[in-house]
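[Automated response] Your request has been received and processed.

Submitted sequence:
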Amino acid sequence: MKAIAIITARGGSKRIPKKNIRDFCGKPILAYSIEAALQAGVFDTVMVSTDSEEIARVALAYGAEVPFYRSEKTSGDYATTNDVLLEVLAEYEKRGKTFDLTCCIYPTAPFVTGRKLRNAVEQLSASDADTILGVVPFSFPPQRAMVVREGRLVFEYPEYLDTRSQDLVPHYHDAGQFSIMKTERYLVNRKVLLGKILPLVLDEMEVQDIDNETDWEIAEIKYRMMSGQGVYA
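Generated structure:
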């Protein structure tokens, strides 16, 4: 079974300049995703999809492949992750390479580890699912959400007002780290979040969306705390 890890890392980040290669606890944040994919030991190819020569140099320095650059179409602000993945798979097929499994790893995911990726591949391979996705529970029950209507705060779901928190069904969201798909099914679905999806539930301490400077600082604090506990030793 052949597997590819595709790390999506375009240039041009606006909210955090050079976000994908900015130093995070001692090395470019992109390096963590590359190292995790390599350490997993389950991918025949670990590549970075980018439109940036600077990002490509960092990727190559940490052991990833950059056999081609993104097209102009998949380098813009409105290109989706699916656009990028489908382009990469099509380009490899032109070069005579196909893969049974396709793993998408985000470039700002320092909490990804080889162990998590290997575990995810094993779970997906042993199932009839199309995809496995890293998810994390919402930290507060969405059933208790409130909205403002006509200047007043009201419960969006008043039927849950008196329900105990422990009796509410847990809700999850994409952890923003990785997804792994059976390639044949992905090429039919043409979207990561379609078909039969397995959850890989992650701890909230190892998940952090990084969209601004505060997010970045929180992620570094979490990473240092978890490193101190030997999680990333």
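Summary generated for your ticket: The mean pLDDT is 95. Strands lie at 3-8, 23-24, 27-28, 45-49, 101-105, 131-137, 146-149, 152-155, 172-182, 197-201.
If you did not submit this request, please reply to this message.
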